[in-house]
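Possible regression after last week's pipeline update?

I re-ran a chain I had predicted before the update to compare outputs. Posting the input and the new output here so someone can diff against the archived version. Not blocking, just want to make sure nothing changed silently.
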Amino acid sequence: MLQMHVSHFLTNLLMILVSAKLFGKLAECWKQPAVLGELFGGVLLGTGVVSFFHPNDPGLSLAAEAGVILLLLETGLDSDLKQLLKAGPVSFAVACVGVVLPFLLGVVVMRGLGHASLPAVLVGAALTATSIGITARVLTDIGKLQTPEGQIILGAAVIDDILGIILLAVVQRQALSGPASWGQAVGSVLIVGAFMTGILLAQTPRKEKIHSFLKPAAGIFVPIFFVMVGAKVDLRPFNPFVAASAGLYGLVVLLIGVAVIGKLASGWAVWTKGVDRLSVGIGMIPRGEVGLIFAQVGLASGVIQGPLYSALIAMVVVTTFITPPLLKKVLH
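New output (post-update):
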């Protein structure tokens, strides 16, 4: 029995890695970051279209967590501490606007649609998140990690995650959800910790040795993370032949609009001359794994129901997918 489970896990793992490599190369052929292809591969392999494996498989989820931690550890190693500290006050301003504005817009919109206070607050909280994993990978892929825009985005995304964890604690207490969601919150703490650890290790003489040691493992586990993010997309609620989907499409468009506007506005908190504010705003758009945590908290606690959960997931997915090509375009 154990041998059968191990064989099944390894088969799924191999399928994910082949998919990541194949679709990543296709994305690069179309002059897009590889991460976009990896996300799309996840959509095809997960519950969205073919259902080769369950997107919440514990073993694969653990491999994905290892991937994002390795990604952020490498990102920290590649970051310039002096540049990050220099961008600190600006990053803090960007993060604050990028949290407060989407939150307020989300609450106002949801209350305007007739939703109760707690679901409105949870949706607003989900709109505050920024995926440092997605943004860091895109900046690395296009060689813009060390630019002033890249360092401001990274710093703001880290602060965003810290503020998001605090907000998650407040929302979780109100929602009275289960311990599983706290496990996801701990995972988010580890992600921020991995980035900070990478920055500290970058100041040591062993930086290059550590980097070369991490590279093979990152090459395996990082693509798994992005494929698993894509695999969480469930296209079934968006069947155009089902009448109930019409209202859901409208809600999704509204949430995406609020999500994009709120983050684009954060770029205009940059006061440094010569920095492209639009690039900073776009870099803050992807919600990724952090937005998924808020959505799962709401579903697990019963605060939000199936349709609203699907709309939140769609918002997370669309903001994750549109960022790589937009960021590549404005930074090139």
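Follow-up from reviewer: compared with the archived run. Residues 176-182 have pLDDT under 50 and may be disordered. Marking as no regression found.
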